[in-house]
Amino acid sequence: MKLKDIIQAVAVNETAGSTEKEIAGIHMDSRCIEKDFLFVAVKGTQTDGHDYIDKAIEKGATAVVCEVFPTNIVPEVTYIKVNSTEDSVGKLATAFYGNPTSKLDLIGVTGTNGKTTIATLLYNMFRSFGYKAGLISTVCNYIDGEAIPTEHTTPDPITLNSLLGRMADEGCKYVFMEVSSHSVAQKRIGGLTFAGGIFTNLTRDHLDYHKTFENYLKAKKTFFDNLPKNAFALTNADDKNGLVMVQNTKAKVSTYSLRTLCDFKGKVLEDGFEGMLMDINNREVNVQFIGRFNALNLLAVYGAACLLGKQPEEVLIALSTLRPVSGRFDALRSPKGYTAIVDYAHTPDALTNVLNAIHEVLNGRGQVITVVGAGGNRDKGKRPIMAQEAVKQSDKVVITSDNPRFEEPQDIINDMLAGLSKEDMRKVVSIVDRKEAIRTACMLAQNSDVILVAGKGHENYQEIKGVKHHFDDKEVLKDIFESEN
Questions:
Q1: What is the largest distance, in Å, between two alpha-carbon atoms of the chain?
Q2: What whole-number distance in Å separates Cα of residue 317 and Cα of residue 321?
Q3: Pathway it acts in (predicted)?
């Protein structure tokens, strides 16, 4: 594509060099630059792309988009100056990849908890309807049935547009995408056109990045503020921020709820560890999910499918066949008669939701033993709260290591223990080694008890000092169950 056609997507302040040249690719990482590429010099949280302009040119960049022209101008290279490269990179990528969201319906799911479940279930549902569909999620990206490994909840704008471009080329009609607060704040979704947006809930998370809850809320709300008029905005009326999210949107607003008047109303009629019987808009449906938080997730899926034009009966039949997402309330039965549940819950609210769901089903017929940790180099403020929530709703708690990253595991555990009273400590043990912590919980469990192993869910690694070591909570549990036989 010609450079002049790509840069039409942004407001250009100044140009040095020809814009008639052909561009073979675009990137914001100098290490990924190849011959005849356009390099976008973005100021990131860790590094400034302007420091790598020379490196990008050495690798073959023939055009550079920047905020400040470098002192050493290379005559063969075209330089384009803009106000904000962070704001421009998504729009440039969208232009280069042929505006893929004009050829498909992109649905964004945002909120603290539930994004992966809702996006994945919608993807599975629409494929079951016979459509080609794409998924962009924390667990894995999919182009119809083809798995594409993922690094972030929402990829960088170049990777994202490349992925969406491939989805459009493969004939995907719908794409369901998790939209993280980071991606909104860092303009990673700039240039994309959404056909709909779904809000799940808002609780404390990512304050290491956003600094305040208000900034975190604002990032989520910005997504809805920018939805086009012909899109839908589906929001959780049971969350106190649900209506705040959509108060300035131009999109058509719809609501879902278990408690209040809304467009998509649900009620849990019966529940067990095998699933629930729900009433959705006065129709009964059996689902293979557990807990009120999942009932809300299913209402969001139901509502979005109806808003995308599917018939309610058709959607209910599909809901009854859907299975939980890997690492989300994943239940395993021990030979000793207790149940172990692996869940990704890594925020206080998510932990509370999962424990509430366990208690709803258990109904006092057994004890709850929780294995929980907290991630390193992330929001330290939630650590004592995580421990408090675990203790409040468990009979025994094993506090352990999660992904310590570059912190000492014992320091993280100490931060968690700092939130507990002497009385709390009577039901708590701390074991740094996560495998031993899970083994200890299994040794403590009796027939009819439930063990919750929280925090890592689908992850099959433990990140220690920058190295990812293989570790899978489900594998550990299965090995322990083998030895119990």
A1: 77
A2: 7
A3: Cell wall biogenesis; peptidoglycan biosynthesis
Nearest to 458 by CA among 110, 137, 136: 137
Question: Would you tell me the crossing angle of helices 85-96 and 157-169 to the nearest 10 degrees?
Answer: 20
Q: Of 294, 263, 305, which Cα lies nearest the Cα of 281?
A: 263
Specify binding-site residues for meso-2,6-diaminopimelate.
378, 402-405, 455, 459
pLDDT value of position 485 = 79
Tokens 């060099």, residue? 17
Indicate the annotated binding residues for ATP: 111-117
Instruction: Please write the tens of the pLDDT for every residue from 129-171.
Output: 999 999 999 888 999 999 997 766 568 899 999 999 999 999 9
Annotated binding residues, written as ranges, equal: 30, 111-117, 153-154, 180, 186, 188, 378, 402-405, 455, 459
Query: What CATH number should be reported for the domain holding residue 478?
Result: 3.90.190.20
Q: How far apart are the first and last CA of the chain?
A: 63
pLDDT tens digits for range 339-366: 999 999 998 988 998 999 999 889 899 9
Number of domains in the chain: 3
pLDDT at residue 213 in the model: 66
Structural domain containing residue 386: 330-484
**pLDDT tens, residue by residue, 195-224:** 999 999 987 544 444 457 677 788 789 999
CA distance 386 to 372: 8
CATH of the domain at 198: 3.40.1190.10
The mean per-residue pLDDT over the stretch 234-247 comes to 94
CB 138 within 8 A of CB 225: no
